[in-house]
């Protein structure tokens, strides 16, 4: 009995000792002894914990001896410490080198981010993919300083223009960046499924882009897609549904407002009396006025539309075989009838180790897309509301302005026509890498792309074109594009010692692109049943064009590092392009750069507030071959002629004079940047300055008709771009359950013409080169500036009109400035107006609380100017068409901003229509929730996230259009409006 009691007492005392609780305090430091504030200290498997104060101190109460404390902080490796009877701890955290030395993709290889010498920026993929779109270009908007994205086409399947660090060329297609996906050139970012992307890098300066030589004068966008990993099979699904709705910054005139506008325009300007309605409106319009039959064309044409996206991927692999494969399906209805887009895509990435020395990489991409476009002639922005589009039975009427008016209802032609484009894209890439030694390798890379595009347009027998007696009309286009690429790559990385590092890359490449285009136009269809697939009895035209371009390249790059503190890089590339003249086919593009890791110097080693400080300087050249194939050669145009009463094929010399001396356009760039991480990685960012000069511009120049030609392409002039870029990210709160970060990217660019032809006028001034549309190349001005008289408001009663440059004007007319004071307005009074923005950028913030995630992104463009073609249309101010509604001038309410409607055309409307296009937009707002691990384990998922996203929710701008980047009218028709989108989605991992 005594023995039993002794045993029980011993166990009790032992248990009590092990259950003893203590208060643990201490200090958390980095390897240099500097205290780290904000470190999370948590008792493992409990909610008991603390956060270190500004001096790195902490106290955790009630900790059982034997428990484990976890110390975690962003940028440092987490550490676990067992609690013993010691209640005062000093904890050292190591920097997370895997995070700080992130490997990023650069030209023909990878590199540690800390060792990058050129201007390279990584795009945050989570932020980029928060925007649900098939237009991958839009995913880059505001994500990288110096990268400006401008909406080109808002319709389903549309695209955007990307400009990196300003316009460097006036050549056709001369400002688009080079797009490289998995080391292979791509025509468009839209050829990539967003869910397949692993990371995106943007190369901006000559040091980083020179290795791509002639193709990289406008920067390079590097995209890496996901690849297989060794381990268990992972299956991921991402699906979402989006509802699109109209967003705009203007209103049109309603029916009654349009009537008032037309009455005002026909008002007697001398007596102030209104004309009788019978003298203003047609009988059809008078009937509509009496019956108050007004048409809201926007409401009639536009309707909410949906997007559906589904992406399924599989990742699997062993030590020797790794596979990533995905299937993506995307479909989008347009908010305009007859418009839509759908895409199905398949991708396979294979990594196979054949032997200890030989490795194979294979990529297969297949896409099938179908785009339906609203057919031409749809103008719902300026069309009159005094119309009757339907009869009493709701049936569409062909003549919407009455039976005596031959104007065709635009909805009628939409109903009686189709415009469909189908694209089949196949990519095949095989790469073999042989490792002679661990430090020396050779890679053979092959790439074949086939893109087959078929477009069919059909206008039925009832279409307005049928009034020409052609009995239906069809346009059939087929374009076969083929690209072949072969690259031989040698990489050598000798191991010297701890002080020196060396990396050498050499490449030989051959790139061939062939484009075959066929178009036929036929008519005379018996019926509309088969559309453009039917048999037409009349062949109206037949066009066939074939072009080819080839590029041969030799390049080398040498990287050298000393003490992991001083980094040097030299690149040289030679390109031979078939598009240039015989004696100027080759271009040579060298670059050199240097980086200094200042934070590793002895005078900064003890400065705890600086975690990283790196200075970068680079200078180099790139080229541009952005001209059409065979443009340097003489060509003949097909000109049939009549001989003996019959049409006989014939050819005459083209109106373009060949230039046998045409050569490369070359851009040289100086870049300096400072990368930093401060205060235990609380702040990190980059400040950069660049200056690039483009010489030997590829320009079209008009020549005297006496030569027998009209225009020639030649090299002349110089353009300069220079600017600043700032990127800053800060992690304000860094706790386990609560994290808050804010980031911004701001860019400014100044574009200026430095030199032109060298010709001068009679007064010795340099001769400008007209570009049309109110633009011209002029020394000292941006290539995008607008050249018109300066708008100066609206004439008011009592103004000195007689002493102005427009003495015949009346109150309510547009006033411009007589720059030379000679009493008349002519070309000598034109001035340049800055069109480029003063700066642009984005501000984003991410807030994480437990499983919840909130992301907001604002995009800002300040100081931009555009010419609004609707405001510049004289027919609007005559009351002949509808358009942007304004508080126009009347004698009773004299506006100082908008002119008076009148029956004759206002002068200087284009000057008046030059408007500020600055804006601030809530680009993205996303709220997501990640299911906790306990819930996931119960349902067999690895991950699960649900989210809601709003896109283009609010836009603050004075520019009156569907979007500040769009004009209301484009090419005579209403622009396809940009939309506001609300998305609900789910991401699942198995």
Automatic annotation (TrEMBL):
Keywords, sorted A to Z: Cell outer membrane, Membrane, Receptor, Signal, Transmembrane, Transmembrane beta strand, Transport
Keyword Membrane: yes
Domain spans labelled TonB-dependent receptor plug: 113-220
A Pfam family: CarbopepD_reg_2
Recorded superkingdom: Bacteria
Position of the signal peptide: 1-19
Cellular localization per UniProt: Cell outer membrane
InterPro entries named among the record's database cross-references: Beta-barrel_TonB_sf (IPR036942), CarboxyPept-like_regulatory (IPR008969), Plug_dom (IPR012910), Plug_dom_sf (IPR037066), TonB-dep_OMP_SusC/RagA (IPR023996), TonB-dep_OMP_SusC/RagA_CS (IPR023997), TonB-dep_rcpt-like (IPR039426)
Membrane topology: Multi-pass membrane protein
Family membership: Belongs to the TonB-dependent receptor family.
Protein name: TonB-dependent receptor
Natural source organism: Hyunsoonleella aestuarii
């Amino acid at each position: 009995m005594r023995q039993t009691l002794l045993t029980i007492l011993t166990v009790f005392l032992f248990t009590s000792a092990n259950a003893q609780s203590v208060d643990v305090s201490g200090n958390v430091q980095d390897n240099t002894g500097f205290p780290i504030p904000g470190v999370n200290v948590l008792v493992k498997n409990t909610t008991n914990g603390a956060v270190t104060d500004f001096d790195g101190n902490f106290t955790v109460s009630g900790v059982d001896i034997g428990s484990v404390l976890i110390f975690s902080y962003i940028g440092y490796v987490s550490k676990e410490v067992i609690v013993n009877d010691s209640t005062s701890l000093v904890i050292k955290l190591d920097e997370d080198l895997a995070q700080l030395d992130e490997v990023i993709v650069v030209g023909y290889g990878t590199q540690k981010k800390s060792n990058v010498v050129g201007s390279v920026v990584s795009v945050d993929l989570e932020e980029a993919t928060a925007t649900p779109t098939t237009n991958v270009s839009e995913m880059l908007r505001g994500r990288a300083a110096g990268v400006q994205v401008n909406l080109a086409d808002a319709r389903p399947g549309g695209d955007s223009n990307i400009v990196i660090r300003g316009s460097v060329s006036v050549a056709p297609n001369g400002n688009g960046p080079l797009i490289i996906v998995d080391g292979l050139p791509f025509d468009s970012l839209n050829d990539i499924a967003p869910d397949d992307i692993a990371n995106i890098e943007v190369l901006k300066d000559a040091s980083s882009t020179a290795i791509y030589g002639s193709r990289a004068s406008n920067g390079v966008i590097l995209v890496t897609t996901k690849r297989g990993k060794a381990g268990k099979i992972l299956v991921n699904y991402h699906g979402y549904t989006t509802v699109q709705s109209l967003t705009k910054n203007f209103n049109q005139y309603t029916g009654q407002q349009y009537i008032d506008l037309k009455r005002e325009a026909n008002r007697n300007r001398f007596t102030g009396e209104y004309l009788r309605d019978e003298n203003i409106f047609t009988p059809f319009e008078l009937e509509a006025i009496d019956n108050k039959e007004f048409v809201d064309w926007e409401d009639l044409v536009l309707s909410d539309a949906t997007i559906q996206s589904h992406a399924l991927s599989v990742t699997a692999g062993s030590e020797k075989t790794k596979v990533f494969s995905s299937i993506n399906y995307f479909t989008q209805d347009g908010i305009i009838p007859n418009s839509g887009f759908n895409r199905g895509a398949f991708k396979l990435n294979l990594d196979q180790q054949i032997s200890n020395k030989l490795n194979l990489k294979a990529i297969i991409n297949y896409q099938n897309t179908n785009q339906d476009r609203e057919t031409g002639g749809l103008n719902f922005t300026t069309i009159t509301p005094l119309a009757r589009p339907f009869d009493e039975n709701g049936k569409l009427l062909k003549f919407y302005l009455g039976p005596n008016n031959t104007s065709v209802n635009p909805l009628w032609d939409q109903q009686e026509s189709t415009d469909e484009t189908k694209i089949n894209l196949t990519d095949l890439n095989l790469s073999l890498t042989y490792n002679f030694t661990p430090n020396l390798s050779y890679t053979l890379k092959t790439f074949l792309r086939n893109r087959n595009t078929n477009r069919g347009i059909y206008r039925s027998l009832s279409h307005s074109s049928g009034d020409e007696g052609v009995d239906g009309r069809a346009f059939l286009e087929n374009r076969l594009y083929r690209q072949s690429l072969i690259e031989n790559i040698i990489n050598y990385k000798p191991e010297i010692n701890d002080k020196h590092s060396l990396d050498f890359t050499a490449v030989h490449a051959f790139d061939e692109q062939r484009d075959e285009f066929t178009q036929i136009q036929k008519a005379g269809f018996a019926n509309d049943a088969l559309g453009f697939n039917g048999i037409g009895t009349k062949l109206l035209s037949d066009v066939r064009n074939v072009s080819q371009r080839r590029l041969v390249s030799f390049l080398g790059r040498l990287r050298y590092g000393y003490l992991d503190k001083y980094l040097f890089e030299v690149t040289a590339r030679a390109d031979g392009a078939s598009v240039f003249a015989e004696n100027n086919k080759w271009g040579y593009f060298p670059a050199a750069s240097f980086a200094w890791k200042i934070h590793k110097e002895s005078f900064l080693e003890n400065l705890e507030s600086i975690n990283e400080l790196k200075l970068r300087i680079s200078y180099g050249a790139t080229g541009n071959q952005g001209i059409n194939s065979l443009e340097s050669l003489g060509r003949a145009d097909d000109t049939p002629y009549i001989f003996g009463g019959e049409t006989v094929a014939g050819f005459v010399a083209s109106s373009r004079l060949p230039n046998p001396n045409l050569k490369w356009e070359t851009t040289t760039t100086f870049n300096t940047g400072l990368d930093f991480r401060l205060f235990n990685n609380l702040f990190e960012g980059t400040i950069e300055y660049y200056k690039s000069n483009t010489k030997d511009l590829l320009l079209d120049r008009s020549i005297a008709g006496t030569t027998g030609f009209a225009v020639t392409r030649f090299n002349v002039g110089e353009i300069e771009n220079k600017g600043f870029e700032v990127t800053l990210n800060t992690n304000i709160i860094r706790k386990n359950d609560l994290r808050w970060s804010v980031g911004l990217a701001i860019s400014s660019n100044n574009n200026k013409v430095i030199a032109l032809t060298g010709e001068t006028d009679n007064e010795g001034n340099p001769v400008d080169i007209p570009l049309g549309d109110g633009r011209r190349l002029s020394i000292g001005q941006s290539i995008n500036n607008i050249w018109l008289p300066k708008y100066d408001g609206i004439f008011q009663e009592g103004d000195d009109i007689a002493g102005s440059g427009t003495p015949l004007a009346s109150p309510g007319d547009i006033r411009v400035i007589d720059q030379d004071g000679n009493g008349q307005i002519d070309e000598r009074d034109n001035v340049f107006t800055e069109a480029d923005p003063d700066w642009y950028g984005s501000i984003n913030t991410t807030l994480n609380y437990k499983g919840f995630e909130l992301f907001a992104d604002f995009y800002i463009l300040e100081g931009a100017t555009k010419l609004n073609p609707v405001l510049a249309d004289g027919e609007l101010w005559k009351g002949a068409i509808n358009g942007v509604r304004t508080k126009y001038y009347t004698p009773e309410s004299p506006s100082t901003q908008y002119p008076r409607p009148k029956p004759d055309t206002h002068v200087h409307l284009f000057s008046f229509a030059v408007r500020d296009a600055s804006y601030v937009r809530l680009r993205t707002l996303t709220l997501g929730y990640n299911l906790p691990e306990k819930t996931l384990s119960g349902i067999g998922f690895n991950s699960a996230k649900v989210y809601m996203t709003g896109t283009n929710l609010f836009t603050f701008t004075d520019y009156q259009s569907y979007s500040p980047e769009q004009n209301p009218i484009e090419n005579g028709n209403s622009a396809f409006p940009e939309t506001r989108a609300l998305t609900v989605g789910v991401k699942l991992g198995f």
